[in-house]
Amino acid sequence: MKKYSVVFNEGGPGICKFLIKSGKIILYSKNSKNKITLGPGKIFGELTLVKNNVKRAYDAKATNDSSFYSLEKFFFHEIELNFIHKILLNLNYSIF
Is a pLDDT exceeding 80 seen at residue 24? Predict the structure, then answer.
Protein backbone atom coordinates (compact mmCIF):
# COMPACT_ATOMS: atom_id res chain seq x y z
CA MET A 1 0.00 0.00 0.00
CA LYS A 2 1.38 3.38 -0.96
CA LYS A 3 2.11 6.19 1.48
CA TYR A 4 -1.04 8.10 2.56
CA SER A 5 -3.39 5.40 1.21
CA VAL A 6 -6.56 4.82 3.22
CA VAL A 7 -6.93 1.31 4.64
CA PHE A 8 -10.48 1.96 5.88
CA ASN A 9 -12.70 4.81 7.04
CA GLU A 10 -14.48 5.41 10.32
CA GLY A 11 -18.07 4.19 10.11
CA GLY A 12 -17.31 1.72 7.33
CA PRO A 13 -18.13 -1.98 7.50
CA GLY A 14 -15.70 -4.23 9.33
CA ILE A 15 -15.04 -7.36 7.32
CA CYS A 16 -11.45 -8.14 8.29
CA LYS A 17 -8.59 -7.48 10.66
CA PHE A 18 -5.03 -6.64 9.70
CA LEU A 19 -1.50 -7.65 10.73
CA ILE A 20 1.16 -5.15 9.68
CA LYS A 21 4.01 -6.78 7.77
CA SER A 22 5.99 -3.62 7.02
CA GLY A 23 5.53 0.15 7.24
CA LYS A 24 3.36 2.13 9.60
CA ILE A 25 -0.36 2.73 9.95
CA ILE A 26 -1.94 5.64 11.78
CA LEU A 27 -5.33 5.20 13.47
CA TYR A 28 -7.41 8.27 14.29
CA SER A 29 -11.00 9.31 14.89
CA LYS A 30 -12.61 12.44 13.54
CA ASN A 31 -14.09 13.03 17.03
CA SER A 32 -10.77 12.78 18.89
CA LYS A 33 -7.36 14.40 18.75
CA ASN A 34 -5.72 11.11 19.75
CA LYS A 35 -3.70 9.32 17.10
CA ILE A 36 -2.08 5.91 17.36
CA THR A 37 0.76 4.78 15.13
CA LEU A 38 1.31 1.05 14.68
CA GLY A 39 4.22 -0.76 13.06
CA PRO A 40 5.23 -4.27 12.00
CA GLY A 41 3.75 -7.11 14.04
CA LYS A 42 0.82 -5.07 15.33
CA ILE A 43 -2.83 -5.99 14.69
CA PHE A 44 -5.68 -3.56 14.10
CA GLY A 45 -9.35 -3.76 13.11
CA GLU A 46 -10.00 -6.92 15.13
CA LEU A 47 -13.08 -5.72 17.06
CA THR A 48 -15.25 -6.02 13.97
CA LEU A 49 -14.51 -9.76 13.80
CA VAL A 50 -15.72 -10.63 17.27
CA LYS A 51 -18.86 -8.47 17.34
CA ASN A 52 -21.70 -8.43 14.83
CA ASN A 53 -22.76 -5.29 13.00
CA VAL A 54 -19.92 -3.16 14.35
CA LYS A 55 -18.77 -0.26 12.22
CA ARG A 56 -15.15 0.87 12.10
CA ALA A 57 -14.48 3.18 15.08
CA TYR A 58 -11.62 5.08 13.43
CA ASP A 59 -9.84 5.87 10.18
CA ALA A 60 -6.71 3.90 9.24
CA LYS A 61 -4.13 5.31 6.85
CA ALA A 62 -0.64 4.25 5.76
CA THR A 63 1.97 6.82 6.84
CA ASN A 64 4.54 5.32 4.48
CA ASP A 65 4.68 2.47 1.98
CA SER A 66 3.21 -0.46 3.94
CA SER A 67 2.13 -4.03 3.56
CA PHE A 68 -0.03 -6.20 5.76
CA TYR A 69 -1.93 -9.45 5.97
CA SER A 70 -5.69 -9.47 6.32
CA LEU A 71 -7.98 -12.05 7.87
CA GLU A 72 -11.58 -11.86 6.74
CA LYS A 73 -14.49 -12.47 9.10
CA PHE A 74 -15.56 -15.70 7.38
CA PHE A 75 -12.10 -17.28 7.69
CA PHE A 76 -11.69 -16.00 11.24
CA HIS A 77 -14.88 -17.81 12.28
CA GLU A 78 -13.81 -20.98 10.45
CA ILE A 79 -10.49 -20.98 12.33
CA GLU A 80 -12.28 -20.23 15.58
CA LEU A 81 -14.72 -23.12 15.10
CA ASN A 82 -11.93 -25.56 14.21
CA PHE A 83 -9.98 -24.47 17.28
CA ILE A 84 -12.99 -24.91 19.57
CA HIS A 85 -13.70 -28.31 18.02
CA LYS A 86 -10.12 -29.45 18.71
CA ILE A 87 -10.31 -28.24 22.31
CA LEU A 88 -13.57 -30.10 22.86
CA LEU A 89 -12.09 -33.26 21.36
CA ASN A 90 -9.06 -32.98 23.64
CA LEU A 91 -11.28 -32.42 26.66
CA ASN A 92 -13.31 -35.46 25.74
CA TYR A 93 -10.16 -37.61 25.55
CA SER A 94 -8.79 -36.27 28.81
CA ILE A 95 -12.03 -36.87 30.73
CA PHE A 96 -12.44 -40.50 29.71
Answer: yes
**Residue 68 and residue 17 in contact, taking contact as beta carbons nearer than 8 Å:** no
Cα–Cα distance for residue pair 1/58, rounded to 1 Å: 18
| CB-CB contact of 33 with 81 (8 Å) | no
Between 2.60.40.770, 2.60.40.420, 2.60.120.10, 3.90.550.10, what CATH number should domain 6-95 receive? Answer: 2.60.120.10
- pLDDT at position 90, please? 76
pTM of the entire predicted model: 0.72
Q: Where are the alpha helices (DSSP H) in the chain?
A: 47-50, 73-95
